[in-house]
Design goal:
Largest sheet: 5 strands, antiparallel
CATH architecture: Sandwich
Order of helices and strands: EEEEEEEEEE
Helix content: under 10%
CATH class: Mainly Beta
Distance between the termini: 19 Å
Shape: globular
Number of strands: 10
Structural class: mainly beta
Length: 140
């Protein structure tokens, strides 16, 4: 086995919460300075509402040059592991971890979980960014 604790650094983007609006699903930006890559993870639980074509969540991954503003969707060429803006609109799609690897050049990334329709009871959500390929080890 290899040591990972000194080579990876996990940082929260969205604190665990039962969310029902996009404000709660807007992740905090994570500074990638000193790292060459990142794994971005969004964790969704079972929705308290019936998901459908009009009541759903969209998991997106964003990047920016500044911590507090200017976030935009990450281009497909800079995101490995699948498409951006994953729509979860059925019970069979709930209770999932959606992960993407970021290989872009921006300093900040975040997870964005957008709620569409009326989410009365909400859905458990959380997001983490795991920074890797550190320029200097150990990271802790």
């Amino acid at each position: 086995m290899k040591d990972l604790v000194h080579n990876l650094l996990a940082v929260k983007s969205i604190d665990p919460i039962v969310g029902n609006n996009t404000t709660e699903g807007t992740g905090v930006g994570v500074d990638l300075a000193g790292f060459e890559g990142a794994l971005m993870l969004a964790h969704l639980g079972v929705s308290g509402d019936t998901l459908s074509g009009s009541v759903y969540v969209t998991v997106g991954f964003q990047e920016s040059d500044a911590l507090g503003s200017g976030y935009a969707d990450i281009a497909a060429a800079d995101l490995l592991g699948g498409a951006n803006n994953v729509v979860v609109d059925a019970a069979a799609e709930e209770e999932v971890i959606i992960q993407r690897s970021y290989i872009g050049a921006k300093q900040y990334v975040r997870v964005l979980i957008t709620f569409t329709g009326t989410h009365t009871n909400g859905m458990p959500i959380a997001a983490v960014v795991i920074k890797g390929l550190a320029r200097h080890n150990p990271v802790q």
